[in-house]
Write a structure and sequence with these properties.
Chain lengths: ~575, ~325
């Protein structure tokens, strides 16, 4: 049972595994490949998007600076005269109002002398005529028209930038403006990258120029604050690509892209937390994972059900064959799967039915063998039909034989001697009956009756019966020689007759015998009774049948018990066997 | 003595209401210290609330505010600051000038203070540096104190013929000396004579305005001082009554009928103080929040007042003005 259950489980496991994998592997392959390509696509999109965001942010910062330089350009359009220029002063004051980022303006004439200074904080000056031509800003603007200074922190906190612009000819002079970069905040804080992404600006040495959190900018040249921003820029620079990943000040992983601001040589970096940038990917991955899990669960369920349905008939078949094997032929295997299993179960059921029939027949044949010759029994067996044993009328030869003087002997002798004699006697007769395929219908004590030509008809039944009787006499006479040597006086006589009789099975339940009924049986019995020792008596029908083939001696008419008239009786001579003769 | 009794009563009442409040999760509390009464402060408070909202806080919903009003009696500020420091407040907002900031600073060295003032917080000793304030304070400073010399310049532009001006200072103000020094230097640069007048109480205002005619000065230049700023209505009324050209730090003055104002935009400074208070409530450290300087300095000119006074405002000034009232 242990081994059974183990094998059952193992088959179930195999089916389960195969079915499960058959569903899960394509599902997983599809899911994983989709996730992978989705990831690649999203990354490409993100790269492109962040690159665009960076360039757009740089353009906005550029726009902020351009707005200032465009306005400043208006102040260096006309050449300076020697007189104070009131009109230009009004322009400068108006410019201060229009561009809040400009803290103060210095206007210089063609010779580099300061003609005007207007400020939001300090006192204005006019016509101080201080020579400023050696100033870095003035020299820079004269050399390249537009000059940007280094970012510096006013009082270590507010980022300031000096911008100088020269006119298109020397006589219009130069304007130098101090710009408070804190006002880029309006621009930088308006740049949104996705939901939580942001942009910041670093100058060439890596000072923070602009950041949506103004307090970071106002910390000035604080190395600890600046380090993460520089690190991100460095990562992007080293990656060479548009987009790189780094960590922001809080240690969060960010995807970042950079774009240069050409004028002041700044870098605009846009950064987006990876959690958000890859949010759609993660969502897709979760979705795929969820679907895979659901798919696997479904596959598992499916595989379980299918494997159960596949192994259940096998289990039933197994159980059914076991029961049928144990002899329960009435057991039927019920499988309604409508497939090969059902067919197999049907053939098992047919087999069981046939086995039952077969066993039934075997039992019947076993009973028949008691009175039929083995050959006949085999025939009946082979034909699978005992119809041959049905009652009918046919021509038969009835052979009777018994011992002479047996009753006296049995009264005298010990039971052992009696049984020993009978045993030898029946041994010998049995062999001969079998040899001649005759049918033993009954025996009692020392007499027995044999039928020839029933139930199975044979060629020349009379001849066969005669030979049978002769061989019987020969064999028994041999035995008698031995018995007589031991002082027993026993003889053996045989009578046979041929004629029509009713043959068939008689009896009840399982106690059946095959027998013949008719005058021929009576006649044979009477002939046997009247036969002396060493005598074989036959009736006229036998004699007619074997005429010319076997020698018969007519013994004339003899009165037969039960017959009114005397009947012709024939004796059958036989040669005793040599050894027996010698013994006599 | 009576005041302390009153405070005890207030705190007792607060303690009585405390168990009731404890039913719902307690809101973080901002202690708000201001030198004036709520009415003149309304516009500032609105800006402060806007800033708080920018940081995600709305009074009554996720933050509670305890107000302490000095009602113009600046000597009450230290006691009010100490009271706030002793209460369960998450942050003290000291707004409306240096006196409130200094009072709060001396009241506590542990509670976070966000100040709003017009002076230089480093020069006043409130913080060590703008970029790294250190300690428990940070805040916002408008440029009002720094630009008082520009007021003299503007008056000189409007009245170029005047040989001198009178400067009004509040001797109790911690920034008075610095401003006067700057003004004297500016006067020297502009070639003007300067008369210094003092006023630290409202009754003194009358004397200031009435003395203009005797001093033979072109007009009055008010130094930056919250006491003056919050009394713009009164100053404007006096300026109209005595027909005196004057300039102060706050837009309230020309709006109320005065001639001009030049000073930092208080809506900006109060809003940023609100933002900082919110960020402190969100868990940020004051040492990480640099002191912010308000960049916007605004010039208001009331041309109606100018014509009443019979002065001509030059085009250069009008073109540079942020708001011209006609």
């Amino acid at each position: 049972m242990n081994r059974h259950s183990f094998r059952f489980r193992s088959l179930f496991q195999k089916y389960f595994l195969v079915l499960f994998l058959a569903v899960v592997i394509p599902l997983a392959t599809n899911g994983v490949s989709e996730a992978w390509f989705g990831y690649r696509d999203q990354q490409t999109t993100l790269d492109r998007l962040l690159g665009v965001e960076a360039r757009s942010a740089a353009a906005k910062i550029d726009g902020f600076l351009d707005g200032i330089t465009d306005q400043l350009g208006w102040l260096v359009q006309l050449p300076w005269s020697v007189e104070p220029d009131e009109r230009r002063r009004i322009d400068a004051l108006r410019l201060l109002r229009q561009v809040p980022a400009i803290v103060n303006l210095t206007l210089l004439d063609g010779t580099g002398r300061e003609r005007m200074y207007v400020s939001r904080i300090g006192l204005n000056r006019t016509e101080s005529r201080t020579d400023r031509s050696a100033d870095e800003a003035v020299a820079g603007a004269r050399a390249g028209r537009l000059w940007y200074g280094e970012v510096r922190y006013y009082r270590d906190s507010e980022p300031y930038l000096t911008i100088a612009i020269a006119g298109n000819r020397p006589s219009v002079g130069v304007v130098v403006a101090e710009v408070n970069l804190k006002l880029i905040w309006d621009v930088i804080s308006a740049i949104k990258v996705g939901e939580t992404g942001y942009a910041f600006v670093l100058d060439r040495p890596g000072r923070l120029v602009a950041h949506p959190d103004i307090s970071l900018v106002l910390r000035g040249a604080d190395e600890a604050t600046l380090a993460p921003f520089r690190a991100i820029r460095e990562v992007i620079r080293r990656a060479g690509a548009d987009v790189a990943t780094g960590r922001d000040g809080q240690g969060n992983a960010v995807a970042a892209a950079a774009s240069p601001v050409a004028g002041p040589d700044w870098t605009v970096v846009v950064a987006q937390p990876l959690s958000e940038a890859f949010g759609p990917i993660y969502a897709a991955l979760w979705r795929t994972g969820g679907l895979l899990l659901a798919g696997a669960a479904f596959a598992g369920l499916l595989a379980y059900v299918l494997a159960s349905r596949m192994t259940e008939p096998i289990r039933r078949l197994e159980e059914g064959t076991e029961r049928i094997g144990a002899g329960h032929f009435e057991h039927r295997i019920h499988i309604e799967t409508g497939d090969e299993f059902q067919r197999l179960a049907d053939s098992f059921n047919t087999m069981a039915a046939e086995l039952a029939t077969s066993q039934d027949r075997q039992e019947r044949i076993a009973k028949l063998k008691r009175f039929l010759a083995p050959q006949v029994a085999e025939l009946v067996d082979r034909k699978g039909d005992d119809g041959v044993l049905e009652g009918r009328s046919t021509e038969v030869v009835a052979v009777f034989c018994d011992l002479r003087g047996f009753t006296a002997f049995s009264a005298r002798a010990t039971p052992d001697e009696v049984m020993s004699v009978l045993s030898e006697y029946y041994d010998a007769l049995g062999r001969i009956i079998t040899k001649y395929a005759a049918t033993l219908t009954s025996f009692s004590g020392d007499g027995l009756m044999v039928l020839v030509n029933a139930p199975v008809p044979i060629e020349e039944p009379a001849l066969r019966a005669v030979d049978l009787a002769v061989e019987m006499q020969q064999s028994v006479q041999e035995l008698i020689v031995g018995w007589r040597a031991r002082g027993q006086r026993i003889g053996f006589g045989v009578g046979l007759a041929m004629g029509p009789a009713t043959v068939g099975r008689i009896g009840y339940e399982s106690r059946f015998e095959y027998t013949a009924i008719g005058s021929v049986v009576n006649l044979a019995a009477r002939l046997c009774a009247s036969a002396a020792d060493r005598e074989i008596l036959a009736d006229v029908a036998i004699a007619e049948a074997v005429k010319g083939k076997r020698a018969l001696i007519p013994l004339g008419l003899r009165p037969i018990k039960g017959y009114d008239e005397k009947l012709p009786v024939y004796g059958m001579p036989f040669e005793e066997r040599a050894d027996a003769t010698v013994t006599t | 003595m009576r005041r302390r009794d009153l405070l005890t009563l207030i705190s007792g009442a607060a303690a009585l209401t405390l168990p009731v409040r404890a039913q719902s999760p307690p809101l973080p509390v901002i202690g708000y210290l201001a030198p004036e009464s709520p009415e003149p402060f309304a516009s500032r408070l609105k800006a402060f609330h806007d800033g708080l909202a920018e940081s995600g806080f709305v009074e009554g919903r996720n933050v509670a505010i305890e107000y302490r009003w000095a009602e113009g009696q600046y000597n009450r500020l230290p006691a009010l600051a100490a009271d706030l420091a002793n209460r369960k407040v998450a942050v003290i907002v000291a707004s409306g000038g240096a006196p409130a900031a200094l009072a709060a600073k001396s009241a506590t060295a542990t509670k976070t203070i966000v100040f709003e003032m017009g002076g230089d917080p480093v020069a006043l000793g409130v913080v060590d540096s703008l970029s790294r304030p250190g300690g428990n304070l940070t805040g916002v400073s408008s440029l009002s104190v720094e630009v008082s010399r520009k007021r003299l310049e503007f008056m000189h532009e409007v009245l170029p013929a005047a040989a001198g001006f009178a400067v009004v200072a509040n001797p109790t103000s911690p920034t008075a000396d610095t401003q006067l020094r700057n003004l004297h230097m500016a006067a020297a640069a502009l070639g003007l004579q300067l008369h210094v007048l003092s006023a630290s109480t409202e009754p003194e205002f009358d004397a200031v305005f009435s003395s203009v005619s005797q001093l033979q000065v072109g007009g009055l230049v008010f130094t930056s001082d919250p006491y003056f700023a919050f009394r713009s209505q009164r100053l404007a009324a006096l300026a109209v009554r005595y027909a005196v050209p004057a300039i102060t730090q706050t837009r309230d003055f020309p709006i109320a009928g005065g001639l001009m104002s030049y000073g930092g935009d208080f809506t900006q400074s109060h809003r940023r103080a609100g933002v900082y208070a919110g960020r402190i409530l969100n868990g940020e450290k004051p040492a990480d929040l640099p002191v912010q300087l308000v960049t916007k300095v605004e010039l208001f000119v009331n041309l109606k007042a100018a014509s009443t006074l019979g002065v001509t405002v030059p085009p250069s000034l009008i073109s540079g003005a942020d708001v011209v009232i006609e």
